[in-house]
Design a protein that fits this description.
Layout: E1 6-9, E2 16-23, H1 24-27, E3 29-34, E4 40-44, E5 60-61, E6 79-80, H2 96-106, E7 124-128, E8 132-134
Parallel strand pairs: 3-5, 4-8
Antiparallel strand pairs: 1-2, 2-7, 3-4, 3-6
C-alpha cells in the first residue's frame, strides 16, 4: 500500500487525517469500505482465496455478490460495495465531492490535467489513517 503522505479534511468536524489513494487498475484489485468504521478492504485479483461464488471483478468496488464472502471488519461492521470511507475523528461518512478539493490539490498529476473521479465507487479507493485489511475472504464451507 502507498504511504500516507497526503492530508484530508473532514467536511463535518474539520478534523485532519492522513490518507493514501489506491488505483485498483494499477494494483489489479478491488475495494470495499466497512459500513460502520469506514476501514478499507483491498482485494487482490491474484489471490488464491477468492471464492468462486463471490463473482469477483477487479478495478473498482466489489460486486454486491461478494459482500457475504468477506470476513467482518474488526469493529463488527461489514464490508459493503456501496459503503463510504469515514472520518477517523467523528466517524461520519466522508463525502466524495468535497474530498475532490483536497485530493486534487495534493495530486502530482493535477498540474498536468488529472482529475479525481469524484466518487467512492470508481477505480480509486482511499485508505484513511492506515485503516486497511487485505484479502479478507471467508473460506467456502
Amino acid at each position: 500500500m502507498s504511504r500516507l503522505r497526503d492530508t484530508g479534511t473532514c467536511e463535518h468536524c474539520n478534523g485532519r487525517f492522513r490518507y493514501a489513494l489506491i488505483h485498483n487498475g494499477f494494483n489489479d484489485s478491488a475495494h470495499a469500505y466497512c459500513d460502520r468504521c469506514g476501514r478499507t478492504a483491498l482485494l487482490d485479483a491474484r489471490s488464491d482465496a477468492i471464492p468462486e461464488q463471490a463473482g469477483f471483478r477487479p478495478h473498482g468496488p466489489i460486486p454486491v455478490a461478494a459482500e457475504p464472502w468477506l470476513l467482518p471488519c474488526e469493529c463488527g461492521g461489514a464490508f459493503r460495495a456501496a459503503a463510504s470511507p469515514r472520518c477517523p475523528g467523528c466517524n461520519r461518512e466522508l463525502s466524495a465531492e468535497p474530498a475532490r478539493a483536497w485530493i486534487e490539490s495534493q495530486a502530482p498529476g493535477a498540474a498536468k490535467g488529472w482529475r479525481w473521479q469524484g466518487s467512492w465507487c470508481g477505480i480509486y479507493a482511499i485508505v484513511v489513517e492506515g485503516r486497511v485489511v487485505e484479502n479478507n475472504w471467508r473460506r467456502p464451507a
